[in-house]
Design brief:
219 residues, mainly alpha, Methane Monooxygenase Hydroxylase, Chain G, domain 1, 7 helices, 0% strand, PhoU-like_sf, UPF0111_domain, Pit accessory protein
Length: 219
């Protein structure tokens, strides 16, 4: 299939549809920014700031839901090529899933109110942020896939490498947790938070896989 086919519908009347994908990627990246702030060290008298950050992440998740809904609405109204519709709907859905998992990570912090956060949580948050930045960069290049394909390829390969790095951080984080002197109940809370962060890296990698499939199909 020729490159023109995937974005043949992005005529002036359908420009809004394409930019909605970029908007979702931007929301995902903003959630990544907030996640680093959430897991960064804080003075005890500023711990309340974490609640505010969690609410901001929830706000991004709600924005993501609205934009995703608009993408599917626009797809149903204007995107008439079934094969292309499947690729774009999958991309939108996976980005929304990634935003949701970031929000769930934040929600666990809000719900469990951990006494302290291990360094592995910040390391995972930083990996997530790097992944979301690559997603934003790749989505921004999809409209010029023919000329910027190698940049897109570089992004999805980087995301895959980061996901593998996250696996190692996760495993070490869990091992360190169970070898620490932290109370058992606190360990259980932190374990769930670390697991949710690791799930976030996997979900973002799923977005990268969709981008990779689009790259392979249309270049």
């Amino acid at each position: 299939m020729k490159i023109n086919n995937i974005f043949s519908v992005f005529t002036p009347k359908n420009t809004k549809f394409f930019f909605l994908l970029n908007e979702t990627a931007i929301i995902l990246d903003q959630a990544g920014d907030l996640l680093i702030k959430l897991f960064s060290p804080m003075d005890k008298d500023k711990i309340g700031e974490r609640n505010k950050i969690c609410k901001l992440i929830k706000g991004e998740e709600l924005k993501g839901d609205r934009v995703t809904h608009q993408i599917f609405k626009t797809l149903n109204e204007t995107f008439i090529v079934p094969f292309d519709r499947e690729d774009i709907s999958t991309l939108a859905d996976e980005m929304d899933n990634a935003i949701d998992t970031i929000n769930r990570s934040a929600h666990k912090v809000l719900m469990y109110v951990p006494e302290q956060l291990p360094n592995s949580t910040l390391l995972l948050a930083k990996i997530i942020k790097k992944e979301t930045s690559e997603i934003k960069a790749a989505i921004g290049k999809l409209s010029s896939l023919k000329t910027d394909g190698q940049l897109i390829r570089k992004s999805y390969k980087a995301i895959k490498a980061m996901e593998k790095e996250a696996d190692m951080v996760y495993e070490k984080g869990i091992v360190d947790l169970f070898h620490s002197k932290i109370r058992t109940f606190e360990i259980m809370k932190l374990k769930e938070i670390i697991q949710e962060l690791e799930k976030s890296t996997n979900k973002i990698n799923d977005v990268g896989k969709v981008i990779k499939n689009i790259f392979i199909k249309y270049t």
